[in-house]
Design goal:
This protein is of the alpha/beta class and 259 residues long. 27% of the residues lie in helices and 21% in strands. The protein has a seven-stranded mixed β-sheet, sandwiched between helices. It has a five-stranded mixed β-sheet with strand order 8-12-11-9-10. Helix 8 links the parallel strand 11 (225-229) and strand 12. The longest helix has 13 residues, at 18-30.
């Protein structure tokens, strides 16, 4: 399990059918700290599938959703995609707080991250579950589909955090996936932020991501996004440059002990 993924103890596995519970048991084996939730009519099956980690409930599954959303960071549901959309819709907030949700068909063929693929960790969770049960992860986020850089995941496994408005993240992300020039200025932190990380791929960094070491090399007219990895305060950015790239600047803060 990578650092970008949520802990097993914060994952709920939900299944509402007999055949689904059998698959849920395989998933529970791959996520040994997760809890399995199922209707009480399948109590024996659920306990056999995830000994000591099964919770059964009475009433409608819809009534369990608020507690699952607030009590867990990730939900793996062996439930149809449409049904999960309807179950979750009344309770969703925003991408920074919603849990990562992965949906699987009863045949265990496809693992679909349906909510919070990046910040919520659903993409990484889907990949892990798919690998464990021999399923195909279905990633629809643009950066993953195109094997490009995910602006909101850069350096996350290394303990970095980013500072930017939602609009700036959207603008920089759009530039990345649309193959527009993006400046990545690295002044601090490990340079091992691409390969073998949730943000990275096995391929080379995309050609439109220009890795620089000096802010002076940033061209506000040409670079449609600026990713600045630094320990310096925002005030260190020249006022003219700061004004020119406002709305498309994302600042990353490596851990202090990485200096």
């Amino acid at each position: 399990m990578t650092d970008t993924m949520i802990a097993d103890t914060r994952i709920a596995i939900v299944s509402i059918t007999r055949h689904g519970i059998a698959l849920a048991g395989k998933i529970a084996h791959a996520l040994p700290g997760a809890r399995l939730f199922a209707p009480d009519k399948f109590a024996e099956l659920a306990e056999a599938a995830a000994p000591g980690r099964a919770t059964v409930y009475t009433g409608r599954t819809a009534e369990q959703i608020p507690a699952l959303i607030t009590g867990f960071d990730g939900i793996v549901a062996v439930v149809s995609l449409g049904a999960m959309v309807r179950l979750l819709a009344p309770h969703l907030g925003d991408k920074t707080h919603d849990p990562g949700v992965v949906v699987l068909d009863e045949g265990g063929r496809f693992a679909i991250p349906m909510l919070s693929g990046h910040l919520g960790g659903a993409n990484a969770l889907a990949a892990r579950v798919a690998d464990a049960i021999g399923a195909q992860p279905v990633l629809t986020t643009a950066s993953d589909a195109r094997q490009s850089l995910a602006v909101d995941l850069l350096g996350r496994e290394l303990g970095w955090h980013f500072e930017a408005s939602k609009a700036a993240v959207v603008a920089a992300s759009a530039a990345v996936v649309n193959d527009e020039p993006v400046a990545l200025v690295q002044e601090a932190g490990s340079t091992d932020w691409w390969r073998n990380h949730a943000n990275g791929r096995s391929n080379a960094v995309p050609a439109n991501i220009e890795i620089l070491t000096d802010l002076a090399a940033v061209d506000p007219q040409r670079h449609r996004g600026v990713l600045w990895i630094t320990h310096r305060p925002l005030s260190a950015l020249p006022a003219t440059l700061q004004s020119a790239i406002a709305g498309r600047l994302v600042v990353y803060r490596p851990q202090e002990d990485a200096r």
